[in-house]
Each structure stands twice: as C-alpha cells, then as structure tokens.
C-alpha cells in the first residue's frame, strides 16, 4: 500500500541516508533474539540477532566537523552541491537508540515508540534485523512460515506498526557502490515497492538532483531518483485494522534493488516498475467487520501471535508460490483467517491466491498492477532471492492511513465492496493530529520465528 518515511527534526540531528561514517557516537546495535525452527530440531535461538536503525533517521554532518549536511527538508548546498560531493563530504553517525529514537529491546522483544523527545523530537522509526554487525539477516520464505507476537494496543487510528520483508542487499549496498562506506551496519540500502524518492542517498550517491521539500512534511522531501524493490507486507496494522500484502516488482534480479527515475518510480502511480497497491488481505475490507479490533475475535487489547505461510505448488523451497495463508493464535487458541464475506459478489477466499487477487481487483474496481508485474509467481521468485526484515512505526502525510483503517477513497460509498477498510473516521489520521494526540503510541514486536510449516507455533 502507500508508504512514506516519517522523519524527525532533532535540533542538531538531521535525518538522512549517507555513506561516510562519523566518529561522534559509537554505533552499538541492540540485541534482539529470534529463532529458526525445523521439524527435526525444534526451535533454536540465533546466536547473533541484533537490529540497526535505518540511515534515514540518523545525524548527517560534515566529516571534519558538526555542520549538518541536511536540515529540515533541504540539503546544505554550501557543503555539497552534487551527489558525489555529498558522499565524500558527509558522514553518518551512530545512534542513541533508546534516548533519541525510543527504540529498545529486551530478550526477544522490540519496542518502537512513535514520538520521542530528547534534544529534539523524533517521529517514527524503522529498524532491520541483522545476523552480524555488518550484514542483514536474509530470510528465504518459500515453503516456510514466519511467526511473531505483536502488541498493537497502543497503535491508534492514523498510525501503522508495520513488519515487512524487502529485497534489499544483505550488506546494504556496500560492495556494489563505491561511494557507500557505511553499509548495513548503519542501515543503508532501503527500497520498497513504492520506489520512494525521499531517500537521501541511493546507489552510494546523494539524491540532491531535483530535490524539493515536501509541502506537508517539514522534515522530508523528494529527489530525482527512487529506490525500488519487491516488498512482502506481513503486517501493516493498528488496533483497528490489519492487512498483509505482496507487492511484486519488474526490476533486475527478480525484484531486486533498483534506482529508478521518471515513470519508473510510479510517477504516474501505475506506470512504474513496481506494483504500488499489491494484493491485500484486510479482514475488514473483505467484509468481516467483527473479526479484528478491540474486544473482537482477534482482540487488539491483547498480544497477538501472527503466522504467515508461503505455500508452493510442489511444497518445496524451489517451487512456484501459489498461496499465502494467515493464522492467528490468541489465549492458546488458533484462529483461522476469515473468508471473504460478500455473498453472491465475491467467492469466500480466506488466503491470497492468484484467483483471489484477480477476482478481488475486478470486484473492488482496483487497478491490477499486481498481475501486470507477475503476480504471486513473480513475488515468489523475489522471495527465493532472500529478503530483509524491516520493523517500523509511522504516520502518513500522503493519505492519513485511510487506505488501512477507514473508508477510502473518502468520496466513495463505504458500503461498496472494497471501500471500507476500518472504523476510523475519514477526517482523522492527519500527522498533526497523531503527533499532538497520540504521542504515547508504540508497537511491541516479539518472539520472531521462521521455519518449516507447522513448527513455529502451538495452539488448540
């Protein structure tokens, strides 16, 4: 769906991607336990699980001092006037995770706060799971299942506590791009299916050319280039609504990292190299109004276990992806994903298959860029290459998160299939509202597991 980085203004801290490494703050990754599971060996805790903060949230300053290279939504052109010069003259600093960014870990649990005040105010955050100090953990999900626990009880309308996979490079682009001296250790190399143009550095060079500040966000802007790759949204959610969504891309390397420009960047929206909408399964949008939410079948006042299974045609890791299934566990009880509830209009699908996506797009009147970009089979080819796990919390300057938790488009009949996505008001979700009234919001992810199907959860 729609995604836009929500960045903070931190007084002397700027928010950006970079390639050089600073020496003012030692980069120490918080440890985060996760498990790999097999039928023969059970679940084993990985020995070196840790997280790193995305470079878009870090302080960027000149290599020989404290002058910001980027402040607010503008580059400091007196410091660097072009991409190569910025790569050479600007350094990315280490992060003070808890005090500055509201990010903390405890055993197998990760907490990301929405708003944190220190020297300035940080809004949102995004981290990646790593298998060492310098490489992202790579997940290979075909014929596997991925499970985690989540607490969204403090994630209200207009805010998204998200967990998703993207086909990033394991080293953050360090080996491919000579200008990148920071790599995965400092959270470089982000990409997704929206081909975001608000990334300050792409391919090891600053995205200075054509840069303009956002008209709605004083801490963000866009440049000429974007960063595209395939994306598998496992969990886009707050306490009102949730969705899981595959987004294939027609980039080199079956959806791998690609620097786009012009139409390639989904400008206009459906003319790019990636599927911006994806094929989503949101229980509310599928007509199940009492399934997910406070006090409902899946009660968002409590911790939830979420299981996602990636089924191939021959039940092997080399087969073709044909089905993405969802289960929940709460209070020791396995809860099946509810079937689509539009009798006589749409068949009762309860998982993401190619036929589900085709029929859903037709009935909802959505653009089928999912099929154009290869559908489930192409998504599977991307997953076979390995994906990086991203975990975040953010608000939405573009569409106020209405596509997730309200009626969208706002001028359509909310009773029409596909329009209602949640019970949040169409007038809500603005960043100003969420930042003023929901400063204590946070998401907690825990108990992350990946393994053979049927090995990562229990329940009756």
Automatic annotation (TrEMBL):
CDD domains, A to Z: GH7_CBH_EG
TM ranges: none
EC numbers for this chain: 3.2.1.-
Top-level enzyme category: hydrolase
Region of interest: Disordered: 415-437
Keyword Iron carried by entry: no
Keywords, alphabetical: Carbohydrate metabolism, Cellulose degradation, Glycosidase, Hydrolase, Polysaccharide degradation, Signal
Name of the featured protein: Glucanase
Signal peptide: 1-18
